[in-house]
Amino acid sequence: MISRQYGSRHLEYLQLFEKEQLSNYLRKKKAAAKCSTEISNLSMQKRIDELYELIKEDFLDEDRATLVREISKAVFESLHRPNTAGPTDKEEEDKREKKHRKKKKKKAKDKDHEDM
């Protein structure tokens, strides 16, 4: 009877020891994977893409868009996407439409100020 209790406790301790060793091994393996350059590069690229989208959204906000921002946007996009040769016909058309909208807004504001 005592040997049976001793055997079951011994087995229980061995199971706990095995579980702890496995946990330590997996913890080390996970830490090594986090430190790998591939994972670092992927997380860095993901962060760069997120920041690019945030900046892009900020530049596309029509209420605050200015000529300096448009130039900065063009420079930023040419740096981010170096394979593009220059603005396409669609981009030039979009710029013309934005300028036209800005002129309309300005005329409307001036007209509102004159009416007051």
Give an account of the 3D structure:
Residues 76-116 are annotated as: Disordered. Residues 97-108 have a biased composition (Basic residues). This protein is mostly helical and 116 residues long. The protein has a domain at 7-80. The protein has 4 helices and no strands. It has helices spanning 2-35, 37-60, 67-80, 89-115. It is rod-shaped, with a radius of gyration of 31 Å. The mean pLDDT is 77.
Reconstruct the topology from this structure.
Layout: H1 2-35, H2 37-60, H3 67-80, H4 89-115
Q: Tell me about the largest β-sheet.
A: none
User: What overall form do the CA principal axes indicate?
Assistant: rod-shaped
Count of DSSP H/I helices: 4
Q: What is the gyration radius calculated from CA atoms? A: 31 Å
List the quaternary state of the chains.
single chain
The mean pLDDT is: 77
What is the structural class? mainly alpha
Region (Disordered): 76-116
Biased composition (Basic residues): 97-108
